[in-house]
Amino acid sequence: xxxxxxxxxxxxxxxxxxxxxxxxxxxxxxxxxxxxxxxxxxxxxxxxxxxxxxxxxxxxxxxxxxxxxxxxxxxxxxxxxxxxxxxxxxxxxxxxxxxxxxxxxxxxxxxxxxxxxxxxxxxxxxxxxxxxxxxxxxxxxxxxxxxxxxxxxxxxxxxxxxxxxxxxxxxxxxxxxxxxxxxxxxxxxxxxxxxxxxxxxxxxxxxxxx
Length: 210
Ligand code: B12
What we know:
By secondary structure, the protein is of the alpha/beta class. The protein has helices at residues 5-13, 16-28, 33-53, 59-76, 103-114, 128-138, 153-165, 183-189, 198-209, and strands at residues 90-95, 118-121, 142-146, 173-177, 193-195. The radius of gyration is 17 Å and the shape is globular.
């Protein structure tokens, strides 16, 4: 039995307490926060997603699994590195309008923070004008947008239009991510980069900042 088996089960069952205890136990065994995210949290949610597609579970099950995952992430977040004295840059991040999925976005935000960026996390269901406002107020150099629904890809395009209208297009570097997005889609809407996971997002943010 894999050492992540228990954690996968507890996330799927939405058991907050046991999820947190198992995350702590894995840390005590010397596992890194990155590995626990990749082999535990991401895998558990993938299983739940496939069960949902197959009609073997429903929205309440997805929701409790998401909440348990977030509880696990709450423990890992402070361990992903403390902010350096001077941030590498400022990143505004959020899940686009109409989309309530936030776990992937939270992981990207956590990893960016851990890599020394100041991250302004707007949350989920974020309308274009809110992204624009935050970029201006925070004087941020990077915008990171997430979406999980095919239908909310349109909101990414609308946000790019809002950047153009606000005169920010070309001044702010834009990266997008989430399973329905592709490199071609990024090109089509004028985003600078599409990352398939948090690691790619962080590496690109470093390139943007250098
Ligand atoms: C949990 C979940 C929910 C939860 C979300 C709770 C929350 N607080 O986030 C709830 C129950 C609310 C939910 C609702 C719905 N969901 Co849902 N959900 C999921 C599920 C199971 C997991 C998503 C997740 O967190 N994955 C784990 C994270 C870590 O992965 P990730 O988001 O992909 O992020 C990684 C990368 O993509 C990347 N990344 C993500 N964003 C970004 C951004 C940047 C800049 C970069 C560089 C990288 C990056 O890095 C991340 C980490 O490496 C998925 C299935 C799945 N396998 O993904 C379905 C899924 C996304 N949901 C789906 C659907 C259909 C829905 C609903 C429409 C269901 C309904 N009928 O009501 C609603 C929509 C609500 C809305 N308006 O948004 C479909 C989407 C199909 C589609 N392509 O459109 C999926 C794929 C399930 C399925 N197989 O059908 N859902």
